[in-house]
Specification:
Nucleotidyltransferase, domain 5, 12 helices, single chain, 9 strands, five-stranded mixed β-sheet
């Protein structure tokens, strides 16, 4: 049996092919495959480009951003079955395969904090639960976008109070704006995106412990700690494995500020997809 695991997100798609003994055969990456943000055509193209560079698998499991709704599942199933008509296909969410890669099929908690944020838990009976992760406008507390939005808000407040400073100037320069007051128009026009705002987190980390970076990062850590603690409470097993993933969560400073003990992810998400595929193939 040849297994293919896919981790498809908003910035890239990772493919891992391995044999029945768990030996890696090949690994490739292509562009984004979140059909909601990248579009259907680009998503199909990027998935097809990756599969074209690999020997055909017998079983494939894809974990995709955008597969959390029935129409998303149907889209990815259709895409994979057309490309791999002889393979057995499983479609899951990207955060599910990230959990399985990080923790396995045992009870635990995974805190993901990158551009967005979400807490994923697995109860002893196998039930999966989630906390947060409902998108940048209404959720994603403590995430890269949340940090970037707070940076913009602080820069706007500095402007209103006629305070010139390095922080506001850095935010303005990173967004390529002549003035921070142009930010609303840039967002409305699409020149400013979720990813662009999230990229401001790097500036906030660099300027810590200065103000307002100190406040922003401590508040972000408090939000992320709350997500992890709530997820842990809902799992109902305090001594279960806890892990953390994502560009924000893996920042050493953020780990320190959160103040909880986390283990490193055991495997990457694409390997998590294979682990899940193997468990389902045995049924």
């Amino acid at each position: 049996m040849i297994f293919l695991g896919i981790d498809g997100g908003g910035s890239k798609t990772a493919f891992r092919l391995e044999d029945d003994a768990g030996r890696e055969i090949s690994r490739v990456e292509t562009g984004p495959s979140n059909w909601i943000s990248a579009g259907e055509e680009a998503t199909r193209t990027n998935i097809a480009a990756g599969i074209a560079r690999l020997p055909p698998p017998d079983i494939v499991c894809g974990g995709f951003a955008g597969a959390g709704r029935p129409e998303g599942i149907r889209f990815y199933e259709d895409c994979l079955k057309n490309l791999l008509p002889k393979a057995r296909v499983f479609v899951e969410t990207d955060f599910f395969v990230t959990y399985v890669g990080a923790i396995g099929l045992e009870p635990g908690v995974l805190l993901i904090a990158g551009t967005g944020s979400i807490g994923i838990g697995r109860r002893p009976d196998g039930t999966m639960i989630r906390n947060g992760g409902w998108g940048p406008l209404f959720s994603d507390e403590g995430s890269g976008f949340w940090i970037g939005r707070e940076a913009i808000r602080s820069a706007l407040q500095a402007h209103d109070e006629n305070i010139d400073g390095e922080f506001a100037a850095s935010v303005c320069a990173a967004l390529k704006l002549g003035s921070i007051t142009e930010v609303s128009a840039a967002w409305k026009s699409g020149a400013l995106t979720v990813r662009t705002v999230a990229s401001l987190a790097a500036i906030v980390f660099r300027q810590y412990p200065g103000k307002p970076a100190n406040r922003i990062l401590n508040e972000a850590a408090s939000q992320l700690r709350g997500i992890a603690e709530k997820t842990l409470g809902r799992v109902g097993q305090s001594n279960c494995r806890r892990s953390i993933a994502g560009s924000i969560g893996c920042q050493p400073l953020m780990r320190q500020l959160i103040g909880m003990e986390f283990q490193e992810p055991a495997e990457p998400p694409e390997r998590g997809a294979i682990i899940w595929a193997r468990s389902q193939a045995q049924r």
